[in-house]
Amino acid sequence: MGVPEHVLVVGAGLGGLRTVEDLRRAGYEGRIGLVGAEDALPYDRPPLSKQYLAGERDRAAIDLTTADDLDELGVRLHLGRAAVALRPGADGHEVELDDGSALHADAVVLAVGAAARAPDGGAGVHVLRTADDAGTLRAALATASSLLVVGAGFVGAEVASTATAAGIPVTVLEAAPVPLARALGAQVGALAARLMTEGGVDLRCNARITALSGTGAESADGSTVTADVVVAGIGTRLDLGWLDGTGVDLSGGIPCDTRGRVEGLDGVWAVGDAAAWTDPVHGDRPRHEHWTSATDQAAAVARDIAGDVAGAGLPPQAVPYVWSDQFGLKIQLIGRPELADAVLPLHGEAFGDDGDTGGPIRGTVVGYLSGGELVAVAGFGAARRIARYRRPLAERASRDAVLAFRDALG
Fold first, then answer.
1. Does the reported pTM lie above 0.90?
2. What is the average per-residue pLDDT within 304-324?
3. 276 forms bridges with which residues in the sheet?
4. Is the pLDDT of residue 154 over 70?
5. What is the domain count for the chain?
6. Torsions phi, psi of 362, nearest 5?
7. Is residue 142 domain-shared with residue 228, that is, in the same domain?
């Protein structure tokens, strides 16, 4: 297809906003529409479990843009309207909204994100995904004398850290053997466990919860935990049922090629949490629910839609990157640790060949290897060093090459 006359972006979060901004930056001069299910301008989500929850930022401080900025870009807003159907056509696509209206465009970008996974039952249990969620939780914590967090992923750990810093006693129940097990793996996740317990949290791993409510939880071993406030941080879910009529297999997210084009739908792209882009190196289709992934994908999609006016070519897929501020340290993760079959101590005293050594966590850097090649690097309070490992990651450096690189860094 040529350059489209009208691009409709469905999803007014970070990925959707960056797409419309990057379209204009790439020289696109056609019409742009932006649909958002929330009745709010695009805002930043990472502060919701940290600075905004702590009361250090007000609501306006987390906005990513203004209505005037979007008007200057020539973006027509459709906020407070959820998409309920996509009807592809040879001469353009139709997106139906929940008020019965329909929007027509010859290019559609799906930037729909993900929703918080709610626990079964659990009346009165908080989740944290939207600004409204965070505002409600912040009000509850203002008068709380205890907090129970179910799930020790990034959101659960950050909420626990924020509450602990505010002087609220916190208990965390985690089903896995360690916190952040999915992101860091069992060995490196042990450092996250120590960071949490040394920060004052009552951490209980391998917990199997049999009953949960807004006042506490009961575990399979018969133990109970009561609290003034209960938060469930048990991951996200994709709400893609409205795309069922497209015939696309959505079981692993929205399947895309290396440019973000949706498989089987001409003139449709996807970015952000729900987008499963093809990895050009490994050939699989992972989903990266990361802030930086959404921005990188938006830039690539915008240039693909607008055409390569400058002749620079599409940007290469960036190395996945995620960070988390908790208990006084920034945890950073670059690459794809889920591919690893071995871990490699690189810097610091907290992690050795046998795992957690009990040494200081700050300054620790650990590499992840797959078939002897570097596929990821994690750091705890080691921002300067982590940044240096982007090159060997991109080069898929061998174990020996990584060790030589480490020694050269000193």
1. yes
2. 76
3. 255, 287
4. yes
5. 3
6. -55, 135
7. yes
pLDDT at 310: 47
Asked if the structure places residue 17 within a domain, the reply is yes
Residues 290 and 392 in one domain: no
Residue type, 8: L
Domain that holds residue 174: 116-234
Pull the structure tokens for residue 200: 């004052």
**Tokens of residue 385, six digits:** 């060093």
Q: Which amino acid is at 235?
A: G
Please say whether the beta carbons of 367 and 188 come within 8 A.
no
Give the DSSP letter of residue 371. T
Q: What mean pLDDT do residues 215-231 have?
A: 96
Q: For residue 130, give the nearest of 29, 260, 21, 42 by alpha carbon.
A: 42
Domain at 380, CATH number: 3.30.390.30
Total Cβ atoms within 10 A of residue 100? 7
Average pLDDT over residues 151-163: 97
**Among residues 194, 219, 234, which one ends one of the domains?**
234
Mean pLDDT of 270-290: 94
The torsion angles phi and psi of 105, rounded to 5 degrees, stand at -155, 150
Contact 159, 233 (CB under 8 A): yes
Exposure class string for 9-29: b at 16+ Cβ within 10 A, else e: bbbbbbbbbbbbbbbbebebe
Share of the chain above pLDDT 90, in %: 91
155 and 54 fall within a common domain? no
Q: Tell me, yes or no, whether 120 and 224 share the same domain.
A: yes
CA separation (Å) from 84 to 36, 49, 234, 308?
12, 29, 26, 32
Residue 66 belongs to some domain of the structure: yes
pLDDT tens for 90-113 read 889 999 999 999 999 999 999 999
pLDDT band of 314, cuts 50, 70, 90: low
389-404 burial code (b ≥16 CB/10 A, e <16): beebbeeebeeeebee
* 68 lies in some domain: yes
Residue 322 covered by a domain:
no
Cα–Cα dist 133/111, whole Å = 20
State whether 280 and 183 are in the same domain. no
Q: Is the pLDDT of residue 311 over 60?
A: no
DSSP string computed for 351-366: EETTEE-SS--TTEEE
